Amino acid sequence: MASQDAVRPRAAMRPALVPAVRGPAVVLAAVGAVLWIVPAVLFAGDTGPSRLDVRVQNLVDDSPAGAWNLVRAMDWLGEPAGRVVLVLATAALCLIAGRQALAIAAVLGIVTTSVLTTALKPLVNRRIHDDFLSYPSGHVAAATAAAMVIGLLLADLLRTGRIAGTAILLAVTIIGGGLSAFAQIHLTAHYPTDTLGGFGCGLFVIPPTALVMNRLARMRAARPASE
């Protein structure tokens, strides 16, 4: 009996990316790649807004004055201290829900998203206010990545099917990324198309990160508990 207990498999962690939304999440990652690569090519080296940027900026400028508190809060979450809070809070929610693999994916994914946007800025070399590298928006990328993790968590906790899970994932991701984009545009910290690139980066990173965690969780579960 003792020898049998020694080789029993480990308890499996809940996957970071559950089957119900695995396919849609992979599609979103592909969409995210398009959303940051295409504008990066189109606006590389630019120092001014496109026509689309001007139109969207005018719409945001007409928003109610009461939006200022939301703008400041969303902007702070993208700053270094705020981003640490964002990472820890997102991971903590996953841990409280018993989703350890998704918690690790949250930390790795948001950090990787931040590294990606930082690396892309000098490569694209798009500037705003003459001197500041602007593409893509790291604020929006981090918010989008965190929102996508929360969407994956809700889809898992609610035990949804593919359609409902995809709807939840899309809604939460768009709201989180959209609010951050609104804040950056309102502050004229980024061109609207910079925020689109940031949104794409967040979409692009999280699903592959979660898939890697799925793989590692399966490998861990396959090892004997005695190891």
Automatic annotation (TrEMBL):
Alphabetically ordered keywords of this record: Membrane, Transmembrane, Transmembrane helix
Record-annotated Phosphatidic acid phosphatase type 2/haloperoxidase domain positions: 132-214
Keyword Secreted: no
Listed InterPro entries: PAP2/HPO, PAP2/HPO_sf
Statement: the UniProt record of this protein carries the keyword Membrane: yes
Spans through the membrane: 21-44, 80-97, 102-120, 132-155, 167-189, 195-213
Pfam family, one: PAP2
Name of the protein this chain belongs to: Phosphatase PAP2 family protein
